[in-house]
User: What shape does this take?
Amino acid sequence: MSTAIRFSAVKKRFGDFEALKGIDLEVREGEFFALLGPNGAGKTTLISVLGGLTRPDSGSASVMGCDVQADYRAARRQVGIVPQELTFDPFFTVRETLVFQSGYFGLRRNDAWIDELLENLGLADKANANMRALSGGMKRRVMVAQALVHKPPVIVLDEPTAGVDVALRQTLWAFVQRLNDEGHTIVLTTHYLEEAETLCNRIAMLKQGELVALDDKVALMQSHSTRLLSLRLLPDALPAALQPLLVSERDGAYLLRLDDCKQLEPMLACVREAGVSLRDIEIVQPDLESVFLDVMGRKAG
Amino acid sequence: MQGFYTLFYKEILRFWKVSFQTVAAPVLTAVLYLLIFSHVLEAHVEAYPGVRYTAFLIPGLAMMSMLQNAFANTSSSLIQSKLTGNIVFILLPPLSRLEFFLAYVLAAIVRGLVVGAGVLLFTSLFVLPELKHPLWVLAFALLGSGVLAVLGMIAGIWAEKFDQLAAFQNFIIVPLTFLSGVFYSIHSLPVFWLGVSHLNPVFYMIDGFRYGFFGVGDVSPWLSLSVVGSTFALLTLFTLHLLRTGYKLRH
Ligand SMILES: Nc1ncnc2c1ncn2[C@@H]1O[C@H](COP(=O)(O)OP(=O)(O)O)[C@@H](O)[C@H]1O
Ligand SMILES: [Mg+2]
Assistant: This one.
C-alpha cells in the first residue's frame, strides 16, 4: 500500500519551547489512524504542519506524495482538515458556507455532494439556517462538512467529538467509517480512547513533541498487556513501597502495574502495614486507555 | 480562478449584507461634512479661482470616504477572521497568494467605489461639480482605494487585537487622510506644512482626483499618478512578500 501522509524529521519551536522534536511518521493509504497524546503533546501542531497552517523549522511533510510547502496547492487538494477550535463565519448560512468552501477548492457546481454531506451529517433541515443560530454540536458538523467539500482522499479530524453529544458522535463515526470503507485515509485525534480503540487500526502516541509509540492497534495492545490494579485509599496517600509501581492516577484512584497476579498479596500487605485502609479495589483489564497510561507514565520515569 | 472569484464574491457579500453600516453610514457622514463646512466657509474661501468652495469640497470628501472604507474593508475582514479563527477555512484551501491578495483588495476597492459614488450622488444634489476628465477621476478612484485597501490588508495581518488596528487607523490613516487637502487647497498652508503635505501620498490621490473634476490641481495629474501608482506597486510587493513568508498568518 502506498503512503498517504509522510512526516520526515519535522521540528517546530515556538520561542524557547520545542513543540515538535523531530517527528518521523508515515500513514498508509486506507488506514484509520489515531494520533494520541495528552494536551500540549503537539498533535494539533503536527496537523497544522500538514495543512500548511504552521511552517516547520526543519523537516518536511507530504500528502499523497505532494510536499505541503513546495507543492502546496496540490497538497491542499488532497487533504481535508477539521480544526480543533470551534469556529464559523457568522455572516452566512450553512449552505452558503459550504458553497463558498467548495469555491475555494475550485469547485463550481458541488450541490449534489453538498446535499449528501448535509444529509449524512444530519444537517439537512439546517441548510438555510444562519451559522450563528446553530448549537455547538451543529457548528461542529458544519466544520466536518467544510473539510469534506472537495472529497479529499485524506481526512484529518482534530478532536472532533470534544464536548459533543452522543448523537453526533454516532452519526459522525458512522459516516467517517463509511468514508474509510470507501478508501479514504482517516487520521483522528481524540481524548476518548474507547473511540480510538473501536475505530482505528493503527496508533501513534505523542508526548512532549516526541513520538513514543507507533504500531498496529493489536500489536500495541499485546505489547502492553499489563493489567492494572486500581486502588482508592483512606487516607488518600500511597505507601512509599508502592510508589515505583505507580502508572497514573485516575479519578482519585491509584493505578499500579500488576505484571503478575502473585504480586497482589504483597501489594495489599504493603497497604495494610502502612496503616491505610482500602476504599475500593479493582483489577483493570488492558484496554487502550491503560496502554496509553502505561506508555505515557513509563517514558516520564 | 474559481477560488479567487469565490473569495472576492464572499468579501463583497460580507459588506453588502450590512450595507447600512458599510455604505449608507459613510455616505451620510460625508454629506454632513459638506453641509457643515460649506455653511461655515462658503462665503470666506475660494480654493481655486471661479470654483465655489462647496464644489471644491465634494471630490475631496468623496475621495476621503473611498479611502477610509477601502481600508476598513480589508482590515476589519482580516482581523475578524483572525480573532474568530475562521481564517483557517481560507488558509486551508489551495488559494494562491495572488488570489488571496487580489480577492481582498478588489472587494475593498469595490466598496470604496460604491461609497464614493454614493457620496458624489448625494452631494451633487447641493452643487453639481463639473466633470472635466472622467478618466482621471476613475484612475485616481481605483488607485487611491487600492492603496488603502492594501494598507488595510497589512494592518489586518499585523494587528493581533482590535485596539492595535484602531491605533493603526487613528495614528496613521486618519492623519494621512485629513492632512491631505480634503478641506483646503494646500497652497493656503504655511511653507512647512506645504512641504509635509507633499510627502503624503494621499495628497496626490485627492489632488489628482480633483483635477479630474475641475481641470485644475496643486500639482500635475501625471506627477500624482506616478506617486500614487508607485505607492500602490511598492505596497503590493511588500504585501505579497508578507503572504509568501506567512507573516502572522501561518505560524
Ligand atoms: N502558535 C503558538 N505559539 C506558541 N505556542 C504554541 C503555539 N501553538 C502551539 N503552541 C504550544 O505547543 C504545544 C503543543 O500544542 P498542540 O499542538 O496544540 O498540542 P495538542 O494538540 O497535542 O494538545 C503546547 O504547549 C502549546 O502551548
Ligand atoms: Mg490539539
